[in-house]
């Protein structure tokens, strides 16, 4: 029996385009529509009855579960939210925002007919919400990657690759002692997926590159950043390159380095993993690996709508990290931190 994927391949279009031709939800050019219709007729494709029934009882609402937990960067969370909301508008859908940190609200949404689909953020390695959405009648996309993503649809930055890229960049510039000033302790205690993947990539690349790496958890406060920098330089005084994966702490880390007379770009190289606008807002030019939060939110909506409107199989999309160098990454002179 032909599937929507077969139709898409035969017509040379995406599965979402086939869905739009079938549903009429978005305008499709006449030549493209004709190709899709010819493929449908040739293959004898018939939409799944369950998909047609669901389409007939739409609410035109997507639920977005973005729990505002301790340790999360609310400004960055809002960038993901903006991506979801703006892309949902393109599909004539509104967004129901759920910010609680429990499964009760999720259960209420999935057990009723309040929403057509769900997008869920801040995924933990062993997330208690995942079995609930896996069993839900609504299609769901996770922004994040649980330990076992089998059968789930997920999208995120490839944080493991980002960790490798950051270390590879510093090692390539000549650094042999690097460090990560990372997520707050609460985030690590929850085994939040992005933080664990970042550290895994960083440590694996450090081993491959023959680089020594230290890791400091860091509260996103001035005092937390001060403690992290001071502890790092006391326990690993030979450090010449720091990777900061903590948007809230980043300006405070830079301030503490300046207080100690350490010049970023001369005495110490710093690579930030954060949205580009966060890097550009710092007091000095920052080399950074972009976290394209708004784009990820938009991709999540594209994925969940494709599943809603057709027979899009579960999949995992990890966006490749991109590093932009805006400051020198060469190691400082010997003894510069002494």
TrEMBL record:
Keyword DNA-binding appears in the UniProt entry: yes
Residues in HTH lacI-type domain copies: 2-56
Family matches, as InterPro entries: Cro/C1-type_HTH, HTH_LacI, LacI/GalR-like_sensor, Lambda_DNA-bd_dom_sf, Peripla_BP_I
Keywords on record: DNA-binding, Transcription, Transcription regulation
Molecular function terms, GO-annotated: DNA binding
Alphabetical list of SMART domains matching this protein: HTH_LACI
Domain HTH cro/C1-type: 3-46
UniProt-listed PROSITE patterns: HTH_CROC1, HTH_LACI_1, HTH_LACI_2
PANTHER family to which the protein is assigned, alphabetical: LACI-RELATED TRANSCRIPTIONAL REPRESSOR, LACTOSE OPERON REPRESSOR
UniProt name for this protein: LacI family DNA-binding transcriptional regulator
Originating organism: Promicromonospora umidemergens
């Amino acid at each position: 029996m032909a599937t929507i994927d077969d139709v898409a391949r035969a017509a040379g279009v995406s599965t979402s385009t086939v869905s739009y031709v079938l549903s009429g939800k978005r305008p499709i050019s006449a030549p493209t529509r004709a190709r899709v219709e010819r493929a449908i007729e040739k293959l004898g494709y018939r939409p799944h009855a369950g998909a047609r029934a669901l389409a007939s009882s739409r609410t035109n609402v997507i639920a977005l579960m973005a729990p505002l937990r301790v340790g999360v960067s609310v400004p960055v969370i809002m960038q993901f939210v903006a991506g979801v909301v703006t892309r949902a508008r393109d599909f004539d859908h509104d967004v129901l925002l759920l910010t609680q940190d429990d499964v009760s609200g999720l259960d209420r949404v999935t057990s009723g007919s309040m929403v057509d689909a769900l997008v869920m953020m801040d995924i933990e390695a062993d997330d208690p919400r995942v079995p609930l959405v896996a069993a839900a009648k609504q299609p769901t996309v996770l922004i994040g990657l649980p330990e076992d993503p089998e059968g789930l649809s997920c999208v995120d930055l490839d944080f493991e690759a980002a960790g490798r890229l950051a270390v590879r960049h510093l090692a390539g510039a000549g650094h042999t002692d690097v460090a990560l000033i990372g997520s707050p302790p609460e985030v690590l205690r929850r085994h939040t997926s992005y933080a664990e993947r970042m550290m895994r990539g960083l440590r694996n690349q450090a081993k491959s590159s023959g680089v020594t790496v230290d890791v400091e958890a860091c509260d996103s406060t001035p005092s937390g950043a001060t403690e992290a920098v001071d502890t790092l330089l006391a326990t690993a005084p030979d450090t010449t390159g720091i990777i900061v994966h903590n948007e809230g702490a980043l300006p405070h880390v830079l301030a503490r380095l300046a207080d100690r007379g350490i010049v970023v770009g001369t005495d110490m190289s710093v690579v930030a993993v954060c949205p580009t606008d966060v890097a550009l807002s710092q007091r000095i030019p920052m080399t950074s690996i972009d976290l394209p939060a708004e784009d990820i939110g938009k991709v999540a909506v594209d994925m969940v709508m494709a599943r809603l409107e057709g027979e899009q199989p579960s999949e995992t999309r990890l966006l490749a990290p991109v590093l932009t160098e805006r400051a020198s990454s060469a190691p400082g002179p010997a003894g510069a931190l002494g």
